[in-house]
Amino acid sequence: MPSIEAMRFNRILAMASAPKSVVDIDFAAEREKNRRRRLPKCPEGMKVESADFSGLHAEVITNTTDKARKDTVIWYIHGGGFTTGAARERRQITQYLCGSYGYTVVANDYRLAPENIMPAGFDDCVLFYKELVNRAGAGHILVMGESCGGTLALSVSLEAKRENIPLPCGIAAFSPCVNQAYRYPSHLGNAGTDYMLHDSVNSEGQYEVEFGTKHPDPEVLHSIYASPIFGDYKGLPPIFLSATDTEALYDDSVELCRKLKVGNHPCELEIKKNVFHAYPMFPIIPEARETIADMFAFFYRQGVLEWP
After folding, report:
1. Bridge partners (DSSP) listed for residue 59
2. 228 — phi, psi (to 5°)?
3. Which of 54, 69, 83, 164 is deepest in the core (most CB within 10 A)?
4. Model-level pTM?
5. Furthest-apart CA pair in the chain: how many Å?
6. Residues 282 and 229 sit within 8 Å (Cβ to Cβ)
7. pLDDT tens column, 84-116
8. DSSP alpha helices (H): ranges in 69-146?
C-alpha cells in the first residue's frame, strides 16, 4: 500500500490532470505557470548559485557543511516530456540530494519542444556534459534524471561512449522513456492510472510536439536520443532504474533492465506499487526517500561511489 503522502499526491494529480491531447497544450503558458510557483527555501548549510556552462544555464547546489562530499558531482537532468521543466523546478530533489548526502548537485536547462524539436535538447545536454567533464574531472560525475530527464541521462551516456568522452561513474534513471519506436503494453494499459502521462506516450500528438511530425522517420525513432534501449551499453557504468507499476512507462524500465541483465551489465530496478510517475523527484514522500537511499546503496556496492 502506498504511503499516506503518496496517496495524497495521487488524489491531487487525479483531480488536477484530466486527459488532454498533447497538441492542445499551451506549453509556453504551462512553463510560465510553473515558473511562478514558489520555490522551496534553501536550507541552512547549502547555497544555490546560477552558472553558465558553454552558454547553457545551470544551478549549482553546494553543501557548505563539514558533511560536504568532494569526490563526486551529481548531474541532475529535469524531465517534462521534452516540453516543460527547468533546473529551478527540481529543487526539491536537488536540495535533498545535496543536504542529505553531501554531494554538489548541478542541474541544467536545455532547449524544449515544440519550439526546438529533438534532438535540440539532447544536443544541449551533450554539450553541457562535455563542459561538466572539463570542470569536474573524468569519472567523478553521477548522472541522473526523471522521466525524459532519465531518457537523457541514458542517451547522453551512450553518446559519450560513442564520442570517446570520459564516462560518468554511474547512471540513475527514474521512470525513463526508453523506446519511442513502438508502444509497450503499459503505454496504453496503464493510461488510466497514470495521471501525468495518460495515453500520450508514443502517440501521434507526442511525436508532433517532440519531433515536429506525427510520423517521424524510423531511423530517428531508433536513435539513442529517442530510444536509448537500442544503444550498446557495453563499457558503460552501473545503472539504477526505478518505476511504478501503475505508470505508462512501467514497461520501459522493465525491458531495459531485462536487456542489461542479459548482457551481464550491473543494473538494479526498483518498482514501487500504486505511486505516481517519476515519484523520486518528490522526496517529501517516503517512497522517494527509500528509492534514493537504495540507489546510493547500489552505487556504493558497485564501488563507483565511496561509502560515507
Report:
1. 50, 107
2. -65, -10
3. 83
4. 0.96
5. 53
6. no
7. 999 999 999 999 999 999 999 999 999 999 999
8. 91-101, 120-136
